[in-house]
Amino acid sequence: MSFAEEEWALAQRVYLRAVQHALNPTGQATTAGPMTMSPAGQPNDQSTFASTFTRFGLFAGQAAAALRSEGITVEHLGLRPTDTFDHGRTIAHHKIAIDRSAIAMIYWRSGGAHLVVVGRATNRDVTYRDPWDSAVNELANDSLYLANYGDFGVVGEILYLSLPPQ
């Protein structure tokens, strides 16, 4: 399994437009991630994207809205009452193709969450691209996620993406 370079370019463009550009009013640089911002420099409210991001995080619904603003069709599967830190969502392999990808929100067992890109999926395996280290992780399609840098979590929410016809 591998990623088409066009898919990664689209993911980077959406990230830059939806996240990085929103940081310009705070004086933060718009270079490529990963990046951090101190919550100490932000008000404890949701008055700006920076204060929302640093104090409360980026929710899957907010990512879905940013993608829709790019003209991408998004099917958002949220958390279910049965999801736990031992079992979350598996990737529906029939929804992944060259023009249909996904973003998975990983809920870390240690706390917090992280978005990763789904590239290819079968009933047994899934390929993720992690924007934190740009690594491609090929894992079992069993709802568990082990990052190359040691964090462990579960797939909690999924954004299935479809590009408009060209």
Please explain how this structure is put together.
There is one protein chain. With 166 residues, this protein is α+β, with helices and mostly antiparallel strands. The protein has one domain (5-162): Cathepsin B, Chain A, CATH 3.90.70. It is built from three helices and seven strands. It has helices at 5-20, 49-56, 60-69, and strands at residues 73-77, 100-108, 113-121, 125-129, 136-140, 144-146, 152-162. Strands 1, 2, 3, 4, 5, 6 and 7 form a seven-stranded antiparallel β-sheet that branches. β6 (144-146) and β7 (152-162) form a beta hairpin. The longest helix has 16 residues, at 5-20. It is globular and about 45 Å long. The model is unreliable at 21-27 and 29-35 (pLDDT under 50).
Topology:
Layout: H1 5-20, H2 49-56, H3 60-69, E1 73-77, E2 100-108, E3 113-121, E4 125-129, E5 136-140, E6 144-146, E7 152-162
Residue-averaged pLDDT: 78
Main beta sheet strand tally, sense and closure: 7 strands, antiparallel
The CATH class turns out to be Alpha Beta
User: How many domains make up the coordinates?
Assistant: 1
